[in-house]
Amino acid sequence: MFNSSTIIEYALLKEGVVTLNLYDITGRLVKQLVNEQKPMGRHKTTIESGNLASGVYIYSLRVDDININKKLVILK
């Protein structure tokens, strides 16, 4: 059974501007998921993957000067 969404959870130690982008494996921006000021604490963002092709994606979470990249695999 295919799950049509994925939840990305993250925690901020202080308030900051959060940017969360989804890229395909070639580095092309697929979707900007978050681009806003967020308060300190835990946050969740849902990626609706029903309209994405099967494959490997990279999501990039940037908060101020910190950047974290993680792999996301979608199989249908």
Strands of the largest sheet, in order across it? 3-2-5-6
The assigned CATH architecture is Sandwich
Uncertain segments: none
Largest sheet: 4 strands, antiparallel
Distance between the termini: 8 Å
Total number of β-strand segments?
6
Structural description of this entry:
The strands form 2 sheets. This protein has a 4-stranded antiparallel sheet with strand order 3-2-5-6, with no helix packed on it. Strands 1-4 form a two-stranded antiparallel ribbon. The protein is mainly β and 76 residues long. It has strands at residues 5-12, 16-24, 29-38, 41-48, 55-63, 66-74. The mean pLDDT is 93. It has one domain: Immunoglobulin-like (Sandwich), CATH 2.60.40.
